[in-house]
UniProtKB/TrEMBL annotation:
Belongs to the ROK (NagC/XylR) family. This is Putative NBD/HSP70 family sugar kinase. Pfam families: ROK. Keywords: Kinase, Transferase. Signal peptide: none annotated. GO terms for molecular function: kinase activity.
């Protein structure tokens, strides 16, 4: 009960537009003022909430002290390994990015141990920088361009990885040995990052206004991540759909030309041979058409109302848009009834590592009692 109420109080403060008083939190949660006060004391002592000065006095009576999430408490370490870069970021409890580092280097010549050792050094430096800022890294999550099951990277075709224990490799770095580390598919994590920014979890300082507000269908979308390979994350009613074994979203290996170019996966004519980052650099109109063909099949099958283009697609969204929409209009049965909404990802190329860091922060926000026990 206490664990549930701690989470409820933290959630109420996190979702308030201005720092609420203890009385306001009691009003919003239905808990008594005495209960809220005791819970707030624990959250303040545990470094999750801070008390902030009240706004200037406007009427009679003494204004109450407000409550806010702390920006010097627990933080999430988001990591990403992709075909042509390594990246690390640190996100604090309020959702603000406090540290970000991207190292561009082709990972294909490296074996998994070399690549993960290099990422481990980046992660250790990020943790050190975060701790110098007064943050406590609560855990790390790694985004990979491949299929993940049971904590193992089962296959990542563009990295030529098979059955790689990336978590063990990262925890072998002395500076990371004590951290909980998880691994997930990069498009899934990017889709979760996108959901957090556009799908209603407020209190994100990086929330961009305008076109990223997708309206009533903001909680159902297909996120397409364009890198050297192409992945997708399907979010339905605010929940990530992972597939029966956790392997859904491999849109990069949907066939767009049956007798087309050979793919690293062993098949031919896969989408990523026409719309992956390297093909995109050669022929943008062809990439847009290929994307439109593959996405039409997804929309016809799943009735997904919104497609979000992320990764390398986000910065060139404006030039890809018309070519993709032309295919959707021509190929989606229902396009005359309800056109598919196409938009650029709100977080751009950082979505996967941001989504990864967010999973750590979300863990703390959803179970502050566990964090308080850990840090006691
Ligand atoms: Zn393929």
């Amino acid at each position: 009960m206490r664990a549930h109420n701690l989470a409820l109080v933290l959630h109420t403060v996190a979702n308030s537009t201005s720092p609420p008083s203890r009385a306001a939190v009691a009003g919003a949660t239905g808990l008594t003022r005495a209960t809220v006060s005791a819970l707030v004391d624990d959250l303040v002592a545990g470094g999750l909430l801070i008390e902030v000065d009240p706004p200037p006095r406007t009427g009679a009576g003494r204004p109450a002290v407000g409550l806010a999430l702390t920006s010097t408490g627990p933080a999430g370490l988001g990591l990403e390994i992709n075909v042509d870069y390594l990246a690390a970021c640190v996100v604090d409890l309020t959702g603000a990015v406090r540290h970000r580092h991207v190292e561009h280097a082709d990972q294909r010549p490296a074996d998994p141990a070399q690549a993960l050792a290099a990422l481990g050094r980046l992660a250790a430096a990020a943790r050190l920088a975060a701790e110098a800022d007064g943050l406590v890294v609560a855990g790390a999550a790694l985004a990979v361009p491949g299929l993940v099951a049971g904590g193992l990277v089962r296959v990542a075709p563009n990295l030529a990885w098979q059955d790689v224990d990336a978590v063990a490799a990262l925890r072998a770095v002395p500076e990371l040995a004590d951290l909980p580390v998880t691994v997930d598919n990069e498009a899934n994590l990017a889709a979760l990052g996108e959901l957090r920014v556009t799908g209603g979890l407020s209190n994100d300082r990086d929330r961009s206004p305008g076109p990223t507000d997708a309206g009533p269908s903001g909680n159902s979308f297909l996120y397409v991540s364009g890198e050297i390979g192409i992945g997708a994350g399907l979010v339905i009613d605010g929940e990530l759909y992972r597939g029966v074994r956790g392997w859904s979203g491999e849109i990069g290996h949907v066939t767009v030309y049956p007798d087309g170019r050979p793919c690293r996966c062993g098949s031919r004519g896969c989408l990523e041979q026409y719309a992956g980052q390297e093909a995109l650099a050669v022929d943008e109109p062809l990439a847009a058409a290929a994307l439109g063909i593959a996405l039409s099949a997804v929309v016809n099958l799943l009735d997904v109302p919104v497609i979000v283009l992320g990764g390398a697609y986000a910065p060139i969204f404006a030039t890809l848009r018309e070519g993709i929409e032309a295919e959707l209009r021509a190929r989606v049965l229902t396009s005359g009834l309800a056109p598919v909404t196409l938009r650029a990802a709100a977080l751009g190329p950082d979505a996967a590592m941001r989504g990864a860091a967010d999973t750590i922060i979300r863990g703390v926000r959803e179970d502050p009692a566990a964090w308080l026990r850990r840090s006691a």
